[in-house]
Amino acid sequence: MSGIKHIVIAGNGLAVNMTALALQQQLPPDINLTLINSAKYADLDCLYGSTSAPDMYAFNLMLNVSEPDLLFNTNSTFCWGNYFDRWAMTPCSWLQGFHLPFPAMRGVGLHHFVTRHGETELASYLINTQADKTGKFAHPPEDNRHPLSRAEYGYQFDASALSALYASKLSSKVTVINASIADVITNPAADSTGNINITGLQLDNGQRIEADLYIDCTGPNAKVYSALEQNSQDANSQQKSARTLFAIHSTLQRGEALPTHRRIRACEFGWQADTYLRDSIQRLTVCTPEQKSQAIDAHGIEASIAMAFSAGHRQQAWTGNCVAIGQAANVLEPLTPAPMMMLMRDIQRLLELIPVTNNMSAEATEYNRRFIADVEHTDLFQGALFALEHLPDSLPEYTYWQQATQFVQSEKLTRKLTQYHHRGILVNYDLEPFNEQDWLILHSGMQRRPQTYDIVADQVPRAEMANQLNGMGNVIQQVVSQMPPHGIYLEKLMAYLSQKRNQ
User: Fold this and answer.
1) pLDDT tens-place string over residues 366-388
2) What is the per-residue pLDDT across 300-333, written as a single tens digit (0 to 9) for each?
3) How far apart, in whole angstroms, are the C-alpha atoms of residue 112 and residue 409?
């Protein structure tokens, strides 16, 4: 039986409600859960990026949140991916979509045949990319013989609505206290394992809360975790230097069209993203602080949130008896679904490593190993968006873009890009959050072309290869032509689900 009897989760907004619901659903009933809910942390939820990867579907089911729950209780829509519009002010425009493994011929990956065929991109053979061009959507069927079955989808969501949905699912198993943390009380000396631990939280309502394990979801300032950081002599507990950026967020009226992507447009000062929800558009603009006046003017509507933030991570996320989750551990520039992916991975990692005794050093060590690996591998993918050396006049001469290159220098990323450029080799590291398909779509969209292809592809006669590729493209176009527009599909789906609900 677990030696942990009481867990406190502190914070407000998406991360705290998602974490509390996951613990409620997965932990045995003899562990008490307390949520200390403070209203001042939720504004930063816009930095989760408002799009999810396909794995959010299964994650929600683990939380007892079905897709109909999501659709009925939030204004979420479906999403084939993120559309990068003239990224870095280059000719590179593409849908960074979600896809199951690409077909292979005689053990050779699709991209090698595309290279051999003399084509410059994969888009013609990706059904979700073709559907996205005309705003078409339908759920991928289970029949793996159907071309659409290879596509995957995520969601476009409003973080506040999603957070409220998770909060509504909390039961009496979670004791909710609406108060702010006035003080974090720690033991004066390290314990037998060398860790300084939290002994209690003093709240502004006069209560003192004591627990075995503390989970910090209070955002980048990490109100709880930072108390241990300040007292720790371990250099690994300190925060890694971060890039300071400025974010502007607002909600505006949506037009008639309902795109199946989140659109990201590059600007001199940074970038601007529009997320298309059922009742509105959420706009997020990101720039450097030096360019915020220009960005605010270009934002085009009065901002509901305007704030500076630091994109970076802590060197470890678990110290003593405290775990930092979500933005308390790692703040990502929300260019991809990475912020939501990392939040879900934090929670899944925590569930796997809930301590069995009050000596948590083994769990903390393993948690931190996986956390740093996830951070490093996510940074590789996001960093590849700024690796533009293969393009002529590649990097815009503006502050945002010039500063971005200073944060993407990595031996692992260089290895990935070099090997792909050489002959289409995909370098993989253990348990990367982004898969081979993600990387291939990214390379193709950013116009990275292998110099040659896998020589084994030559075993397939050119005529056979051409027929296969042309056949794939033709079938995809036929299927897409029969798919409904996203808005109509959603409308009919909601009507069907409502009818089913009332039966």
Assistant:
1) 999 999 999 999 999 999 999 98
2) 888 888 999 999 999 999 999 999 999 999 999 9
3) 28
Burial class (CB in 10 A: 0-12, 13-18, 19+), 179: middle
Cβ distance 430 to 89 under 8 Å?
A: no
Q: Is 59 helix (H, G, I), strand (E, B) or coil?
A: helix
- Supply the DSSP string of 188-241, one letter for each residue: SS--TTS---EEEEEETTS-EE--SEEEEES-TT-TTHHHHHHH---GGGSBPP
28-56 CB burial, b ≥16 within 10 A, e <16 = eeebbbbbbbbeebbbbbbbbbbbbbbbb
- Are 82 and 96 in contact by the 8 Å Cβ rule? The answer is yes
| CA atoms of 218 and 222, how far apart (whole Å) | 5
Give the neighbor-by-neighbor strand order of the sheet with 198-203: 181-186, 198-203, 208-209
Q: Which residues contact 145 (CB under 8 A, 6 or more apart)?
A: none
CB count within 10 Å of CB 145 equals 6
Alpha-carbon span 17 to 216, nearest angstrom: 12
**pLDDT tens for each residue of 5-59:** 999 999 999 999 999 999 999 999 999 999 999 876 667 899 999 999 999 999 9
Q: Rounded to the nearest 5°, which phi and psi values hold at 313?
A: -140, 160
